[in-house]
Amino acid sequence: MTVSTPCPWRAGRLPSGALDTICDVPGVTVGHATLDDLAIQTGVTVLRAHSGSHYVHKVPAAATVINGFGKSVGLMQLDELGVLETPIALTNTFSVPAVAQAQIAQAIQLHSEIGRAWPTVNPLVFECNDGYLNDIQAMRVSANDYQRAYTATDQIFEQGAVGAGRGMSCFGFKGGIGSASRLATIDSVTYTVGALVLSNFGKRENLRVLGQSVGLQLSGSGSSIMQPQSEKGSIIMLLATDAPVDARQLRRLSARAAVGLARTGSYFGHGSGDIALAFSTAYTIPALSVEPMPSVAFLHETRLESLFEAVADATEQAILSSLWYAESVTGRSDHRRESLRTVLPG
């Protein structure tokens, strides 16, 4: 179900793009495959950095592991080479292998030389644990679900309890997929920074909205079962920009996602997997040495300040949007997470 009322909360001072999602960054598209069947409340979300082959034309990228309680695939090579070789996939923890295998199969189908005449491909799958609402042990996500999400990628996409976000919880309420964008002007040139999050973290009493502590006021609202006693959840934060920056600078951008996350009330607890990845669509890097490397005039280090602010604001906004747009969901063993919208006063 699509929520028609826009999120009423707006983080920061910078303007948004036309869509106020990560798809304001040119070339970026997002798609979902949602599994909604009684105890099965899960899915896959796919983000494409451009419409072509990510293996042949790679985009620069870097990640920051804020807290490493996670089971993602692909981060080691990403850290070494600083590029994406596949679309980015989000799913539940136990479905990472199935989705990674689907990404490998898709890349081989597009390029039969992979793993033979060419190097192998580095799948990139991030996860959060949706086991409270979803029967995660059933491992129902399949390669077909990845392909459905990939095929559905578009500039316009749903937020909330959809795709990988279907079974996620945030601050004891329903969490899931959220997105936002902010515009940063540097030397008279305007660049876009977009964020997309998979939110599955937080203790209810710590929830903050635009600097206001609202969690304690809502501590008795919604489901009273299985409220987190510690910061056990996780969040994946994907950041895109069209600014000309390299992988080292993108790592600096990804680290600033922690600012937006902290503003909402997270303290990156012991059992939380908090990962941020940033990539740029300003140029691509060819897989084959016969193609020339791009000649790019990167932003000077001292000009990144506005991008840092845009990352922090877009991340905070995306988390708030994931809460606002998520509908209430009942899943495994009649466990239920209420939508934050249903318990807000007034």
Brief summary of the model shown:
This protein is an alpha+beta fold. It has helices at residues 75-81, 96-110, 143-151, 247-255, 257-263, 305-325, and strands at 29-37, 40-48, 57-68, 83-84, 88-92, 125-128, 169-170, 173-174, 176-186, 189-200, 208-209, 212-213, 234-241, 273-280, 285-286, 329-330, 336-337.
**For the report, how would you describe the main beta sheet?**
7 strands, mixed
Uncertain runs: none
CATH architectural designation: 4-Layer Sandwich
Mean pLDDT: 95
Give Rg in angstroms.
19 Å
**What's the total helix number?**
6
Shape: globular
CATH class: Alpha Beta
Q: From the helix content, strand content and strand pairing, which structural class follows?
A: alpha+beta
Terminal CA distance:
22 Å
Domains counted in the coordinates: how many? 1
* CATH topology assignment: L-amino peptidase D-ALA esterase/amidase
Residue share in helix = 10-25%
What order do the SSEs take from the amino end to the carboxyl end, as H and E? EEEHEEHEHEEEEEEEHHEEHEE
Task: Kindly describe this structure.
- It is a single chain.
- The protein is of the alpha+beta class and 346 residues long.
- It has one domain (22-333): L-amino peptidase D-ALA esterase/amidase (4-Layer Sandwich), CATH 3.60.70.
- Helices cover 20% and strands 27% of the residues.
- The chain is built from 6 helices and 17 strands.
- It has helices at residues 75-81, 96-110, 143-151, 247-255, 257-263, 305-325, and strands at 29-37, 40-48, 57-68, 83-84, 88-92, 125-128, 169-170, 173-174, 176-186, 189-200, 208-209, 212-213, 234-241, 273-280, 285-286, 329-330, 336-337.
- Strands 3, 4, 9, 10, 13, 14 and 15 form a 7-stranded mixed beta sheet that branches. The protein has a 4-stranded mixed beta sheet with strand order 1-2-5-6.
- Strand 16 (329-330) and strand 17 form a beta hairpin.
- The longest helix is centred in the last third of the chain and has 21 residues, at 305-325.
- It is globular, with a radius of gyration of 19 Å.
- It starts with 28 loop residues before the first strand and ends in a 9-residue tail after the last strand.
- 55% of the residues are buried.
